[in-house]
Amino acid sequence: MNLEHSGREPVMRRSSPAYPSLPQSGILVFESHHSTTFSMELKRFPFHKICWIPVGRGSLEFGSSRLPLGKDELLLIPAEDEHRFVDNHTAPMTLVFAFFSANVVKENKALQILLPELKSRFDLPYPIVELHSYRRGAVRDIFKRMLLEQARGGPESEAILHAGLIDLLVHLLRGDLLDKTASISREQAIDGTLDYIEHFFHTTISVKDLAEMCGISSRRYSDLFKQRTGRTVVQYLSERRINYAQERLRQTGQIMYAAVSAGFSDITHFYRVFKRMTNMTPGEYLEQVSSTEREEKAN
């Protein structure tokens, strides 16, 4: 999930970590979109990390231990704890961070109260919860607001960044505790593959790969997918690609660019799928868009 461009451009994905420096405020919101080849060395960081995983699954390695991580989990990693993120390469993670320094904690009474409370409440090495329903949306909105204020700058924005940290830590305290030995439900697994399709529709995706993510056969996955969406995998993927291609056509007017960016390597196949789903060719669609724009200008 790209907080700034959700549902639009496919995001740039990293094969290695970025190591940003904290700004003068001591707080930084940062997104890391991992590729299927992402790799990271064990490393210590001089700041605390609040981390949300909106997409993918993997683990957090520390010492000789490994903590499984999954979609819509929120965790806190204290400063100077040596660790690294390891992705499941069939479903690489997107990580959204709020970094904050020890000085920020010293200046904020609420953080001084919340951090020890988190440490005492959780049996796991790191405070971690699963986000459900409104809490998931609330955490997403907090990060979006913090990103916006980070870009604006100024004392008012810095105050909102501090408030965002407090809100995120409260969600950690009030979130659903995780039993890391429990397996995810089939429904949760299917939802995870829908997220995968949303972020990787422009790449080659097979039913076999999606089924393997869920640990079930291709036939069983296809049946569950159709029950969940009302469409086959091919229909669902084609619809997502054509919708994206229409966006690119409206923005650029370039048919080849729209086809390739939406995941079609064969222009003939693109024309055939586009015609089947929209009852018009890409060229006819562009003509319709141009006609509509002329009418709107005339009015």
UniProtKB/TrEMBL annotation:
PANTHER family named among the record's database cross-references: HTH-TYPE TRANSCRIPTIONAL ACTIVATOR RHAS, HTH-TYPE TRANSCRIPTIONAL ACTIVATOR RHAS-RELATED
Coiled-coil residue spans: none
Keywords associated with the record: Activator, Cytoplasm, DNA-binding, Transcription, Transcription regulation
Keyword Transcription found: yes
Protein name as it appears in the record: HTH-type transcriptional activator Btr
Organism this protein belongs to: Bythopirellula goksoeyrii
Example GO molecular function: DNA-binding transcription factor activity
Highest taxon, organism lineage: Bacteria
InterPro entries named among the record's database cross-references: AraC_XylS_family_regulators, Homeodomain-like_sf, HTH-like, HTH_AraC, HTH_AraC-typ_CS
Domain (HTH araC/xylS-type): residue spans on this chain: 191-288
Gene: btr
